[in-house]
Design goal:
alpha/beta; TIM Barrel; Thrombin, subunit H; 4 domains; 8-stranded parallel β-barrel; 6-stranded antiparallel β-sheet; 31 strands
Length: 611
């Protein structure tokens, strides 16, 4: 049996430098962060200098830093995109996450990860990317466990999957719904999230079956109970969504998944975490207390209904209880958990939600800051836990590497060695003349105290072994030796973790699985076009984002099916055979259903008559 262990990675989002440090301290093995441009979240950009600072800290613990350059690139931007990529290589990032194949044509000396925006859903597609030198394939969120296993059987490339956070209802990189309603495009980092808006479901005859509901708004992802199955299926990186989330969200969710992954690793001796250090936090993580749209498993165990939230696209939070009696200025509630002043509440009914804050609590009676619309019988959810949020904000978090110290004193010499649990160590020596100590016990105690301090370093000294305590050394001298040794050990870790610039070679004979590329393949520049032509593609239509209008085109393909969600699945004998449309304002989309693949598409049917 091979003694080589498989590295398992917890991959966390970082909006900025502070979020990155929070994620590292709470146990992330890797980060993904946006650069100053070309990232799929325009609201989460960082300068190259700030990313360099993140790299310096992350590499102390063997934490990797991946930068998202995952938008499509127009012809006039190629030079600027390549220049940015090469600056990122220079500051030592570990990989670039890309959608546009132009980056592969640039021959950048760095590992490339195929973004989920490439719409990685098939074994053939993943194998092709592997053959083209991609180090990692990031899987589409709509895949089932069985589909992930099939991709693993066909490849040896690293597989990364999302396990927590928001889900794009459209297949990643193949959604143009935002672009169909505005100049803003998800493939350019500016998605306006029209999937969270209200729509009417209308038949071809004009009958409105559903009015004003969030028909495309799906619940968030939570695969925390499936980590072990995913490891066994061949996934090595577990990704938390949220590059726009605040530091409290990062601390809470990363800490929670650190615990869940460590639990899974404990029963899998052939696996190990991919970074080092022990995280110390002062709160009990609970992802239900951070922003979440009632997390579920989406299509992980196959296509199913119950994955959408028609009444609201917002975070409802944790279930609290129900309203018993409504007074003039207060409410009496039936609650299974205590509430506190400052909490945020949602009151739900079939018509939507009502939000309010708690001003005062007296037993089962609460005084909210508004009463409008609240009725007896409504269910109550807490979407902001004031005390929990305070505990996260006030808690100290630290990540430390355990080290041991052995120090030997003699008449003319001091030797101190610090070593960590990962086979690394440094030794500092001093040629000095020492007198005999007056008390061996006291000298040993002083040496143990001085050599065990770690201050604001990344180390935690767990044990000190003292030899030669019959010789006297001052506390000042011992402190100097300790500081020098820990500084050397930190520098050693930085040098050890510096990535070697590299790009995997590609198989020039690799053939792309499709010969004709549609507008949904997002080819909008000459380098990307050259890449596909080199690999057997015969015909390429310019990417839809560059078109003046999306009318008549497919603007979304999804594993989510509205028919299935409302109980009108055609495969299960639905009598609703009409052509169906979604309407929002003057925008109109025909729903096409591919029952063989169990997929739904939206075709832009907006015309001047709709306006």
């Amino acid at each position: 049996m091979s003694s080589i262990k498989h590295n398992i990675e917890l991959l966390a989002p970082a909006r900025d430098y502070n979020a990155a440090i929070a994620a590292i301290d709470c146990g992330a093995d890797a980060l993904y962060i946006g650069a100053e441009s070309f990232g799929a979240r325009r609201g989460a950009t960082n300068t190259t200098d700030d990313i360099a600072r993140v790299v310096d800290y992350a590499h102390l613990f063997g934490v990797k830093v991946f930068v998202t350059l995952n938008t499509i690139i127009y012809e006039g931007e190629l030079q600027r995109a390549e220049a940015l990529a090469r600056r990122l290589v220079d500051v030592g990032v570990d990989a670039l996450i890309v959608q546009d194949m132009a980056y592969r044509e640039m021959n950048l000396p760095i590992a490339l990860h195929a973004s989920t925006q490439v719409c990685n859903m098939t074994p053939e597609g993943a194998k092709f990317l592997q053959e083209c030198g991609f180090e990692r394939v990031i899987l589409e969120r709509a895949l089932s466990l069985d589909e992930i296993k099939e991709i693993r059987k066909a490849t040896t490339v690293d597989l990364e999957c999302f396990v927590h956070g928001a889900i794009c209802v459209g297949h990643s990189g193949r959604c143009y719904l935002s672009r169909s309603q505005s100049p803003r495009s998800g493939n350019r980092g500016e998605c306006s999230q029209p999937c969270r808006l209200t729509y009417d479901l209308v038949t071809g005859r004009g009958e409105k079956l559903i009015r004003g509901k969030h028909l495309l708004s799906v619940k968030d992802f939570d695969l925390s109970g499936r980590i072990g199955e995913l490891i066994d299926a061949g996934v090595m990186s577990f990704k938390i969504e949220g590059r726009l989330k605040d530091d409290n969200y990062i601390k809470n969710v990363v800490s929670y998944y650190r615990h869940k992954i460590d639990e899974a690793l404990a029963s899998r001796p052939h696996c190990q975490r991919s970074s080092v250090g022990r995280s110390e936090i002062e709160f009990t993580p609970d992802p239900k207390k951070s922003f979440t749209r009632d997390g579920g498993e989406y299509m992980f165990m196959g296509k199913r209904a119950g994955v959408a939230s028609f009444n609201t696209p917002k975070a409802v939070g944790e279930y609290i209880g129900s309203v018993a009696v409504v007074g003039r200025r207060d409410l009496r509630i039936v609650s299974r958990v205590p509430l506190n002043a400052g909490d945020g509440l949602c009151f739900t009914s079939g018509e939507g939600i009502i939000g309010t804050n708690v001003n005062r609590v007296e037993g089962n009676t609460i005084v909210p800051n508004r009463m409008d619309g609240i009725k007896a019988g409504m269910e109550i959810y807490r979407n902001y836990d004031h005390r929990f949020t305070q505990s996260v904000e006030r808690s100290r978090t630290r990540r430390a590497i355990d080290v041991k110290c052995s120090i030997t004193l003699s008449a003319n010499h001091i030797t101190a060695t610090y070593s960590d649990n990962y086979g690394h160590g440094v030794t500092v020596e001093r040629d000095v003349t020492l007198d005999m100590s007056k008390s061996t016990d006291k000298m040993r105690a002083v040496a143990e105290e001085q050599m065990s301090k770690s201050g604001d370093t990344i180390f935690r000294v767990t044990a000190v072994e003292v030899s030669g305590a019959e010789w006297f050394a001052t506390a000042k001298l011992l402190a100097e030796i300790r500081r020098e040794a820990l500084s050397m050990l930190a520098a050693q870790r930085v040098d050890m973790q510096r990535p070697e610039p590299r790009l995997r070679g590609e198989n020039a004979d690799a053939q792309y699985p499709i010969k004709r590329l549609t507008p949904q393949h997002n080819v909008v520049n000459s380098l990307s076009r050259h890449f596909y032509l080199r690999h057997g593609v015969e015909h390429i239509v310019e990417g839809l984002d560059s078109w003046a209008s999306t009318v008549g085109e497919r603007v979304m393909e999804s594993s989510y099916c509205l028919r299935r969600e409302i109980g009108e699945c055609l495969k299960r004998g639905s009598k609703l055979r009409d052509t169906l449309y979604l309407e929002h304002g003057h925008h109109r989309y025909r729903l096409d259903f591919d029952c063989a693949k169990c997929r739904m598409s939206l075709i832009d049917c907006t015309t001047n008559d709709n306006r």
